[in-house]
Amino acid sequence: MTDRLHNKYEEIFGKKATNDFFSPGRVNLIGEHIDYNGGLVMPCAITFGTYLLVSFNDDQIFRFRSLNVEETADIELRGQYHKTGESWYNFPLGVADYFLRDGKELKGMDMLFYGDIPIGSGLSSSASIEVVTAYALNELFDAGYSKLDLVKISKWVENDFIGVNCGIMDQFAVAFGEKDKALMLNCDTLDYQAVDTNLGDYVLAIINTNKSRKLAESKYNERVQECAAALSALQQELEINHLCDINTETYDKYRHLVKTDLINRRATHVIAENDRVKQAAKVLAENNLGAFGQLMYASHDSLRDLYEVSGKELDTIVEYCRTNTGVAGARMTGAGFGGCAVALVKRSGFDKFSSRLTQYYEEKIGYAPSIYSSLIGDGVGGINRPVNSGDNL
Predict the structure, then answer these.
(1) Is 236 helix (H, G, I), strand (E, B) or coil?
(2) 3 state SS of 106
């Protein structure tokens, strides 16, 4: 894989790349719609991601090239930049902008990107690009940022340079990911615990519904407001800052303060989901994938029935998974209303699972899903370890 990328680099730039880097994508295993409620999430890095090959030039120009898209950019080095349209190179350009605004001296660079994260899959290709660029610039220019600094810089790029209101989970997971470990992360404090996650005979199946998610943003904002209403009601008698400051047992004692059924259902999901993340860390540490799988199903049921952010497409995938003995657990992952599901699938039966799920889904929905297999991989770094994939350069 790396050799072919280096050959492509020479074809494009007429010289050798001097450095190469890789940053993964991520998937959230459990802990959904609780990051904005002071709760815990459990993402992991996957073995798809973004490759970046670099060398310096003497022209004081940033040359951005990608093997995924034809669009290119040659941008003169100057003091600061602003987003240009919807172009892909805004992500690395935003990182360079932060370094320059922060007083770091940069040079002209010839940069070649290649991503094997499936486009539109919800596996966080933008965070992967941001983090690999930040890591590369930090290394190449000895900028002195910590890995956590790079996470915060990448989030700044997403929020302030690009203009997308995302949290910090994606950037954190792709930076701090560890092979065969999930990260139990408090998105509020950024405290985290790396939890041993031995998949054994299983792989992560990431299933893209291929449904457009036009409702997701408006419904997301609705849920944030509904959670704020629940919190406000509970604060009449409880000194808490977030819904996830309490557990299900405590909520049961005070749920009478929440006067409407809808707001009660939203709070019930949030608080129980946070409890599930804690339980997930415990059963994974005990190498009990069966129990973890049941928590995944419970998470999906709660997101479907109490939080109402699933949909026919996601429910169809999870419904099929429940009938397949080679699946330990499955759930929607991400904002919902389309996007992706994640499942624990026996490695030996993955191909059969994929073909049968595709047939089942097509019969119910009318078009095919996209299904990918991944392991849990390392976070960002130089390319000095094997990384899977490498199709179709």
Answers:
(1) coil
(2) coil
Position 386 in a domain: no
Predicted local distance difference test score (pLDDT) of residue 121: 63
156/117 same-domain check:
yes
Positions in the chain whose pLDDT score sits under 50: 385-392
Q: Give binding residues for Mg(2+) as ranges.
A: 126, 158
List active site positions.
170
| Beta pairing, strands 181-186 & 19-30 | unpaired
Torsion of CA 151, 267, 339, 276, to 10 degrees: 70
- Binding site for substrate, by residue number, is 32-35, 220
Q: Which residues are annotated as a binding site?
A: 32-35, 66, 120-126, 158, 220
- Phi, psi values for residue 212, rounded to 5°: -70, 145
From 197, 221, 245, give the residue that closes a domain. Answer: 197
Residues 230 and 188 in one domain: no
Q: What is the pLDDT of residue 392?
A: 43
Give the pLDDT score at 386. 38
**CATH number of the domain residue 238 falls in:** 3.30.70.890
Phi first, then psi: give them for residue 287, nearest 5 degrees: 60, 35
Note whether 273 and 180 are same-domain residues: no
Phi, psi of 48 (to 5 degrees): -105, 155
DSSP readout, 8-71?
HHHHHHSS--SEEEEEEEEEEEE--S-GGGT-EEEEEEEEEEEEEEEEE-SSSEEEEEESS-S-
Residues 6+ apart with CB under 8 A from 70: none
From the annotation, which residues make up the binding site for ATP? 66, 120-126
Indicate the SS3 state at residue 5.
helix
pLDDT at 388 (0 to 100):
40
How many domains would you assign to the chain?
Answer: 2
Q: Are residues 255 and 183 in the same domain?
A: no
Token code pair at residue 205: 């199946």
Which of 149, 180, 197 corresponds to the end of one domain? Answer: 197
The DSSP H or E segment spanning 205 is strand 202-208
CA distance 108 to 106: 7
Hey, is 99 helix, strand or coil? helix
Question: Is-above-0.85 flag for pTM?
Answer: yes
Give the pLDDT of residue 124: 75
Structural domain harbouring 105? 2-197
